[in-house]
UniProtKB/TrEMBL annotation:
SUPFAM superfamilies (UniProt xref): Ribonuclease H-like
Lineage top rank: taxon: Bacteria
Descriptive protein name: Mobile element protein
Length: 169
């Protein structure tokens, strides 16, 4: 399943009960005009109904080879797509944001040995888990969905406040 641009030309060949449709994609416009070498796909169009999220009310499209709408309902696939996307955000948070000296740049491992690199991966994961656990605790104290909190915003607060908290002890 992949997200595709909302302006990608896809001619519905069959409308499905859940609002999605079946279409064909082609390797070139010439092959499309000849209806040759097309791959049958299912297209799910939706809009996010959440004013707090980027892309609210804008059209979004997913394309999949899961053609059976009864077995794979469109709404379920949209939810699963966004859940999977959260995993991608975890990798981005770990790679890009956890090293304050390299803000906005991918993390680099410094160790010269496989065991050392493994330790760095575990340390990065533990640091990420710690920030996310603090975010969850904070969100729960005010009955807020943790997805509403910004990882980079929380990280900046921790970076600013942690030195003063450590000096108090």
């Amino acid at each position: 399943m992949v997200r595709i641009k909302s302006n990608m030309v896809l001619k519905p060949t069959q409308r499905l009960a859940d609002g999605s449709f079946v279409a064909k994609i082609y390797p070139s416009s010439y092959r499309r005009s000849q209806d040759r070498d097309g791959i049958v796909v299912r297209v799910i169009e939706y809009a996010l109904d959440d004013p707090q999220r980027t892309g609210h009310e804008q059209p979004h499209r997913l394309m999949t080879n899961l053609l059976d709408a009864e077995r794979y309902p469109a709404l379920e696939l949209v939810i699963l797509y966004h859940e999977r996307w959260e995993e991608e955000l975890v990798f981005d948070e770990q790679k890009t944001h956890l090293d304050p000296r390299r803000a906005g740049k991918p993390a680099h491992f410094r160790s010269q040995t496989p065991v050392g690199v493994e330790q760095e991966v575990y340390a990065l994961s533990l640091g990420h888990f710690t920030v996310r656990a603090l975010m969850l605790e904070s969100a729960q104290t005010v009955d807020l969905d943790v997805d509403r909190l910004s990882f980079t915003g929380c990280l900046r607060i921790l970076q600013a406040r942690l030195p003063e908290r450590l000096s108090e002890k």
